[in-house]
Amino acid sequence: MASPVRSPPNCGSSSGAVMDNLLGLLRVRVIRGVNLAVRDVVSSDPYIVIKMGKQTVYDKDTFSMDDKMGDAEFDIRPLLEAIKMRLTGLPSGTVITRVMPSRRNCLAEESCIIFNEGKIIQKMYLRLRNVECGEVEIQLQWIEVPGSRGI
């Protein structure tokens, strides 16, 4: 799923056009869930809800009542800082920076931001909060949109 990222309303031009405020797209790829909490009789049917500011993106229909299976937060600022470097020509697999797990984030282990085939990608293993167990592996990728302001 890719989510459009816009600048705050007072930062763009006064024309109000969508492309004036659009910075680009953030692709969030959910790789897998590991050791997720069981909420049904034998297993669970998990889904992901991504919230960025006031925007919410669901990965499927979520209109039925569900049991909470945990939550996690992550900061996209390190990824955006790597993108602002405008790196080119690096060998694929080059580590740009590392984000260490701490009490202020939900990282289960070190997260590397890498240059891979011309793209800047961050893979994360997030430890779920407010639940007895579970981790989610995700991958972030910034997508430049022609005509957007960019970062």
UniProtKB/TrEMBL annotation:
Any one GO molecular function term: GTPase activator activity
Q: One cellular component GO annotation, for this chain's record?
A: plasma membrane
Is Aminoacyl-tRNA synthetase among the key words of this record?
no
Q: Where in the cell is it found?
A: Cell membrane; Nucleus
Where does the record place the C2 domain? 24-55, 56-79
Where is this chain primarily localised? membrane
Q: Which GO terms describe its biological process?
A: abscisic acid-activated signaling pathway
User: What SUPFAM superfamilies does this protein map onto?
Assistant: C2 domain (Calcium/lipid-binding domain, CaLB)
Q: Which UniProt keywords apply?
A: Abscisic acid signaling pathway, Calcium, Cell membrane, GTPase activation, Lipid-binding, Membrane, Metal-binding, Nucleus
Keyword Nucleus belongs to the record? yes
Among Pfam families, the record links this protein to: C2 (PF00168)
The entry sums up its family as follows:
Belongs to the plant CAR protein family.
Protein's recorded name: C2 domain-containing protein
